[in-house]
Design a protein that fits this description.
- It is built from four helices and no strands.
- It is mostly helical.
- 15% of the residues are buried.
- Helix 2 packs antiparallel against helix 3.
């Protein structure tokens, strides 16, 4: 699977490695930007203006990151033979996030082909 298909298409399946790659990149990216926001707010004499600018950048990065994150999650749900609509389970407080983590991060995908395509390599 090429990068374009991985990050922008909602068709097909991916394994747990792609999902955990997404998780690690998001933790590093947003953790680093959050730390940058806090550091700029602490070190700047005009803390509100400094942290506001970083917050705007953080929001823009989150919007850009949203589509690829949804695409990878949809493919991961497909790998465990569930509809991509299962992404919405993350909206259920506490329990939804835990269910999504277990299905996407820990359960192996179904062997062979399913209705969403062939098993990822």
């Amino acid at each position: 699977m090429n990068w374009k298909s991985l990050l922008f298409s909602f068709d097909g399946r991916v394994g747990r490695g792609a999902y955990w790659g997404l998780v690690v990149v998001s933790i590093l990216l947003f953790g680093g930007m959050g730390a940058l926001s806090v550091m700029s707010a602490i070190s700047s004499p005009d803390a509100a203006a400094a942290s506001g600018g970083v917050s705007i950048v953080l929001g823009l990065v989150a919007l850009i990151f949203l589509w690829p994150a949804l695409a990878i999650q949809a493919k991961r749900w497909h790998d465990v033979d569930k509809s991509a609509w299962w992404i919405l389970i993350g909206l259920v407080p506490a329990v939804g996030t835990l269910v999504a983590l277990v299905f996407n991060g820990f359960l192996p995908g179904g062997p062979g082909s399913n209705r969403f395509g062939t098993a990822p390599n």
